[in-house]
Amino acid sequence: MNRLVVTKRLLRFSTSSASCSRLGRMMMSSSVDGGSEEKKMVSSYWGISRPKIAREDGTQWPWNCFMPWETYRADLSIDLSKHHVPKTFTDKVAYRTVKLLRIPTDLFFKRRYGCRAMMLETVAAVPGMVGGMLLHLKSLRRFQHSGGWIKALLEEAENERMHLMTMVELVQPKWYERLLVLTVQGVFFNAFFVLYMLSPKVAHRVVGYLEEEAIHSYTEYLKDIEDGKIENVPAPAIAKDYWRLPKDSTLKDVITVIRADEAHHRDVNHFASDIQFQGKDLSEAPAPIGYH
Ligand SMILES: [Fe+2]
Ligand SMILES: [Fe+2]
Question: Which PANTHER family match (predicted)?
Fold first, then answer.
């Protein structure tokens, strides 16, 4: 196989939605069997070889999309019931908007929580990226630090994307669901972008409420697993590495840690909104970087 073909294959892997796990598997298999693809990738004129990376138990690190130092143990002690009571007019609008968005979601997915979670994660990973990008541009325009908020919001986007990479290992989207993702992303990205430009404090409040709904959905998901309505299958390999879960972890463990992540996102976004409701700039309050 010539170098061009290998490069094209790698590009295809790195740009597909499930690139994380597939590239991970490819890297693992090529390193295990000494396959030629990895050697050719390294021998590219511009190629930068990856140093040998291992898990704590010494086995080869199979993922290219996240590294061992980016993994963590979810803080399961977080209060899941916290709620921001809407008091101001804009808070009430944000709250009602999220409650309204829930209606079509409930009607479409009903109790198909795997599918529902997978689809919602495609939306959940958007606000952090939009907010992070706009704060990045603001920092450049004003020659000012962001107080760590760019990093915190991009971390959130990445964390949500890892939720999606985990869910696609459990649920395979059908063609019409992929079509729905395309449509929803097109609408939601632009709507959220405009909202963040107009009022970042309302945008963060909306996300705070979306995260409260995510906690509720994952709690219902867990109930169905506990009641035996959804099979408690073994946890995907990517989830075990990302959340440092034990080898015998199951779907229930994965949903539990994802729900804890959502509770952290809820806190970060309500906090970001509160700062701005008090008439301050986000950069005036240190961002909760690495808050999991
Ligand atoms: Fe999520
Ligand atoms: Fe979230």
Answer: ALTERNATIVE OXIDASE, UBIQUINOL OXIDASE 2, MITOCHONDRIAL
